[in-house]
Specification:
This protein has about 220 residues and is α/β, with parallel strands linked by helices. About 30% of the residues lie in helices and about 20% in strands. The protein is built from 5 helices and 10 strands. Helix 1 runs parallel beside helix 2, helix 3 packs across helix 4 and helix 3 crosses helix 5. The relative contact order is 0.20.
């Protein structure tokens, strides 16, 4: 089976839906999303709702990973208030939930259970990657962990696919053997996906321009 890995969505529900409707081959591809489903775009609740539905409909074929924005909203509801999240984008996300009368706390419970990474023998996929700077990359509070890292990545002997740090196009780092595919769907203009063989060979990149309804 091949893999279709999609970068940071940030509330761009229509854009994500357009991408998977046009490009996801359910017959022979596993869908993996890198985290940051919420915040910044106009449709965070709808995006989480779709992620929950896809996970229920295709439990063996769909994986959504946790990103730092999921961590932030979880922290807000667990240890209220998360003032940093609220001031940056959380207040708007909560308004979106109120507008469509969707239970935010129920969604947060689902987000809390998302995994931090997905891997096979040749590929390692996480939100922000394995840093050279840390012994335990899975500490969710560590600035160098897989939710937050912006430092150089470690070469772990596998292809790494990450998001988190926006770039104007997908970028490859030869030293760490890592692709960064967050192209800022909510503010730089498009969502990126990449199709990969199980041995880590890149098949192709997919670009989906941000739907105006998400801006």
């Amino acid at each position: 089976m091949n893999y279709f890995v999609i970068g940071d969505v940030h509330g761009c529900y229509h854009t994500f839906k357009n991408m998977i409707n046009k490009y996801w081959n359910k017959e022979n591809e596993m869908l993996i999303q890198l985290g940051d489903l919420i915040d910044r775009g106009r449709n965070s609740p709808q995006m989480v709702q779709l992620a929950i539905q896809l996970s229920a409909d295709f439990p063996d074929q769909v994986t959504f990973l946790k990103g730092n924005h999921e961590f932030e909203i979880i922290d807000h509801f667990t240890n209220q208030p998360n003032t940093n999240w609220l001031s940056q984008c959380g207040e708007e996300t909560l308004r979106q939930y109120e507008k469509i009368n969707r239970d935010c706390e129920s969604d947060v419970s689902w987000l809390s259970d998302l995994p931090l990474y997905w891997e096979n023998k040749h590929i390692f996929i996480s939100h922000a990657g394995i840093s050279e700077q840390i012994e335990n990359p899975f500490d969710e509070n560590d600035e160098f962990g897989v939710l937050w890292n912006r430092s150089p990545l470690k070469n772990i002997g596998k292809l790494q696919i990450i998001g988190h740090t926006p770039t104007d196009r997908p970028k490859y780092d030869v030293t760490s053997n890592a692709w960064s595919i967050d192209t800022g769907a909510a503010y730089l203009g498009y969502l990126t996906g990449v199709k990969i063989k199980s041995n880590g060979e890149i098949i192709k990149f997919i670009r989906e321009d941000t739907d105006p309804k998400d801006k």
